[in-house]
Amino acid sequence: MRDALVAAAFRLFLERGYEQTTVDDIVALAGVGRRSFFRYFPSKEDVVFPDHERCLADMTAFLTASGKDHEPVRRVCDAARLVLLMYAENPSFSVQRYRLTKQVPGLRAYELSVVWRYERALAEYLRGRFAGRPDGNLRADVIAAAVVAAHNNALRSWLRSDGRGDASATVDHALGYVQSAFGASPAVPETTAPTAPAPPADEQPEDVVVVVSRRGAPLWRVVQEIETTLGQGRPSPQ
Could you report the per-residue pLDDT of 165-186, keeping only the tens digit for each? Predict the structure, then answer.
């Protein structure tokens, strides 16, 4: 039933668009009632991310089962790999979800909240392991954020390539940077980073520009500063 609801939802999302699809549309196509939908998914957003609750529970259980002999940085890197395994179980579905999330601002916000919960799970484990050390909480939070950033960078690179290539090797390479930076030996031998097919030009990562302006500055001045910043380092048009 759960899988049928997810399949029906994504079929309609692709045909009509996310915003134009209602819960009633989904249950009608799946041949079930609204009560069945809400038994599995609290909202329409949750049907887009059907496995994250299970994955978060698995990650938490994995970290809870850790012993004192487990090197903590390597342990949280291994925990992050559980998320990759979830995505790699069904590459085509993961790629569809990635594309849909890019198109719908509400889903991007939902995804950020999910990512934050993963990061908090990693940080809480590390805080316990670093308890009593100087800057233990700070170290835990920084490492957790670094693990999530490295994992997501590699995961999105794989998704942009339509799920081609070895996702595990790409993520291992990225997490190796975290383990090296924070004093842990990489869990895998150092290798040349796998080369994934380049994404189409319209899917290249967007630049992010931060401009600091004086409080009370007129809007035209702020716009001028942004335009100047964006123009730096770019060849002038011919």
Answer: 889 999 999 999 999 999 654 4
